[in-house]
Amino acid sequence: MQAKANGQHTVPQIFINGKHIGGCDDLYKLEEQVDADLKPVLNV
Fold first, then answer.
1. Per the UniProt record, which residue ranges are transmembrane (predicted)?
2. Which stretch of DSSP H or E encloses residue 44?
3. Three-state SS string across 11-42, please?
4. Which of 9, 21, 22, 24 has CA atoms 20 to 30 A from the CA of 31?
5. Residue 35 half-sphere exposure, CB side, CA atoms within 13 Å?
6. Higher pLDDT, residue 40 or 14
C-alpha cells in the first residue's frame, strides 16, 4: 500500500476507483472543490 500511497504514512489513505486521493484532509479538500464547482451549476 505504501507504494500506491506515494510513501504517505498516515491513515486512512483513501483510494477511489484505484486512484490515490490522500488522507482525510485531502478528501475534505476534494469535497469542497466539488461543491464549489457544482453549486453554480445547480443554482444552490
1. none
2. none
3. CCCEEECCEEEECHHHHHHHHHHHHHHHHHHH
4. 9
5. 6
6. 14
State the cell numbers at 28. Answer: 475534505
Q: d(Cα 13, Cα 20) in Å, to the nearest integer?
A: 8
- Domain of 5: which CATH number? 3.40.30.10
Query: For 6-39, how does the pLDDT look when each residue is reduced to its tens digit (9 = 90+)?
Result: 676 778 899 988 889 999 999 999 999 988 887 7
pLDDT higher for 43 or 2?
43
Specify the pLDDT at position 26: 92
Identity of the amino acid at 29: K
